[in-house]
């Protein structure tokens, strides 16, 4: 018997947008706002029912600090986001001037308001399925740079093609760029990706008691409103003895101590957000739906063990309960496009700068390896990068996938080696890459028939500075 696949019809919408943003996550939401503020008609297409991606739906509540010489390196729209979060009580500033902690539920609202106020549109509960390609066959072996003329999406309305002039692929996994023919890499030299984590919160915590207990354990805390505590086997945490007791009592598994980290959350008194559990190594590919499903299940089981541990061993948590299992498993790294430039570890360690820079980074290489308990921070050595006023830059070329002319890929799928990606992937860099991509996309749609390589990057940099950026 011969089986044939059904041909699935889609209808093409009559509208066309200047800029289609595939994935309204950390980079994509900001990209949509920036493009709309540049005068483009913008549609952000998002699989979930809210913006913010990993920052909101995977509950990655702190923006990792990215400071050099006393300056936050990510400004522009990131500054506006923080100010709006603080104004509504969903962000905070600790005594050290750290303004990076936020309430993800507030972040969803702020991003949505900023996008809509800027004239952008959003389509939720919609999955980008495939690009519609147009290109010229130059010879039997060679096709000139192709461009995407529409995105086929799926939602409760069925399959539809949404036409657009420029596409920002901010899916985190380069779904569009790869389907459009762009090359990509994934994982380390053996193809093993960084570990996933399923973040969760504990609500009903007596944070004052927990704070004094942690202080008594030598884990200094600013206040019950600004707490950060951790335990990783063999790293000298004062909580290690308690974890050992938890394992011996059968409450925890050994691997539950591979990475444990808790933060308080602005605007959510009595709630602690956890950057764990780390998912078992066999599920390490966040672009594989079976791994994602396994990760979600494995993560929820581990959350229940950690909750039982906290209730039994951490004073102040006796009556705590799970506030949320993050709806989205936290994926650190999957596909990284092959762009016009690939950022490397050497670029980082040598503090390389670029004439077409769109972002500055001082956050270090930070690999959550699923191979073992070790969190590798390659901070050792005398590389210039480790000076407190050092930084390296990310070139515009790193968000341009080869083989396609009208697609930009800001965010964690930008063109970078495995090591370099682990440094540049933090949220504020995704914002800044997204902001650059948004402005560039709007200009490419308006002036250059969608060609994102026709942009004068010096003018883009000047525009980013005029909007408060630090490039
Ligand atoms: C567990 C964990 C802890 C981390 N800790 C920190 C931290 O403390 N501080 C920090 O700054 N960074 C941290 N990071 C890194 C940072 O959060 C991410 O690298 C960053 O948020 C990724 O942003 P992005 O825009 O590339 O992707 P995302 O924010 O994941 O956005 C992708 C969006 O695209 C949508 N999408 C995907 N595919 C499709 C599709 N086909 N159709 C429609 N929509 C689609 C998704 O729903 C999502 O909204 C952490 C990451 C993880 C996973």
Automatic annotation (TrEMBL):
Annotated Pfam families: FAD_oxidored (PF12831)
Q: Which Gene3D superfamilies match?
A: FAD/NAD(P)-binding domain
Please list every transmembrane segment annotated in the UniProt record, as residue ranges. Answer: none
- Tell me a Gene Ontology molecular-function term this record carries: oxidoreductase activity
Enzyme Commission number = 1.-.-.-
Is DNA-binding one of the keywords?
no
Q: Which domain of life is it from?
A: Bacteria
> Is Cytoplasm given among the entry's keywords?
no
> Which EC class, in a word?
oxidoreductase
Query: Keyword annotations for this protein?
Result: 4Fe-4S, Iron, Iron-sulfur, Metal-binding, Oxidoreductase
Q: Which InterPro entries match?
A: FAD/NAD-bd_sf, HdrA-like
Question: What PANTHER family does the entry give?
Answer: COB--COM HETERODISULFIDE REDUCTASE IRON-SULFUR SUBUNIT A (PTHR43498:SF1), FERREDOXIN:COB-COM HETERODISULFIDE REDUCTASE SUBUNIT A (PTHR43498)
User: What is the protein name stated in its UniProt record?
Assistant: FAD-dependent oxidoreductase
**What organism does this protein naturally occur in?**
Deinococcus oregonensis
């Amino acid at each position: 018997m011969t089986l044939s696949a059904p041909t699935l019809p889609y209808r093409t919408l009559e509208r066309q947008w200047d800029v289609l943003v595939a994935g309204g996550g950390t980079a994509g939401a900001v990209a949509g706002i920036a493009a709309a503020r540049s005068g483009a008609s913008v549609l952000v297409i998002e699989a979930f029912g809210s913006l913010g991606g990993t920052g909101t739906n995977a509950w990655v509540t702190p923006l990792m600090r990215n400071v050099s010489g006393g300056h936050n390196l990510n400004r522009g729209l990131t500054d506006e986001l923080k100010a709006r979060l603080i104004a509504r009580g969903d962000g905070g500033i600790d005594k050290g001037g750290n303004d990076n902690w936020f309430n993800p539920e507030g972040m969803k609202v702020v991003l949505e308001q900023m996008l809509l106020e800027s004239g952008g549109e959003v389509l939720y509960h919609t999955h980008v399925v495939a690009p519609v390609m147009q290109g010229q066959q130059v010879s039997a072996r060679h096709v000139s740079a192709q461009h995407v003329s529409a995105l086929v999406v799926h939602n409760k309305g069925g399959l539809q093609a949404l036409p657009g002039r420029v596409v920002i692929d901010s899916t985190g996994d380069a779904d569009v760029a790869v389907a459009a023919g762009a090359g990509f890499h994934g994982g380390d030299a053996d193809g093993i990706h960084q570990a996933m984590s399923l973040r969760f919160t504990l609500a009903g915590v007596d944070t004052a008691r927990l704070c004094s207990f942690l202080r008594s354990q030598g884990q200094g805390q600013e206040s019950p409103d600004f707490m950060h505590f951790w335990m990783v086997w063999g790293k000298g945490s004062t909580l290690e003895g308690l974890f050992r007791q938890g394992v011996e009592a059968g409450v925890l598994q050994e691997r539950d101590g591979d990475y444990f980290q808790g933060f308080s959350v602005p605007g959510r008194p009595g709630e602690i957000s956890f950057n764990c559990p780390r998912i078992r190594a066999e599920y390490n590919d966040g672009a594989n739906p079976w791994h994602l499903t396994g990760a979600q299940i494995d993560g929820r089981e581990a959350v229940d063990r950690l909750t039982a541990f906290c209730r039994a061993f951490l004073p102040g948590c006796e009556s705590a309960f799970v506030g949320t299992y993050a709806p989205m498993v936290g994926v650190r790294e999957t596909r990284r496009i092959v762009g016009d430039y690939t950022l490397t570890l050497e670029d980082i360690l040598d503090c390389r700068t670029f004439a077409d820079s769109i972002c500055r980074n001082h956050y270090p290489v930070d690999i959550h390896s699923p191979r073992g308990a070790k969190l590798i921070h390659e901070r050792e050595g005398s590389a210039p990068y480790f000076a407190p006023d050092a930084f390296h830059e990310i070139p515009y070329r790193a968000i341009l996938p080869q083989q396609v002319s009208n697609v930009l890929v800001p965010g964690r799928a930008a063109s970078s080696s495995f090591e370099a990606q682990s440094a540049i992937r933090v949220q504020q860099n995704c914002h800044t890459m997204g902001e650059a991509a948004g402005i560039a996309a709007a200009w490419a749609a308006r002036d250059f028939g969608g060609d994102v390589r026709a942009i004068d990057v010096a003018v883009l940099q000047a525009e980013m500075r005029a909007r408060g950026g630090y490039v």
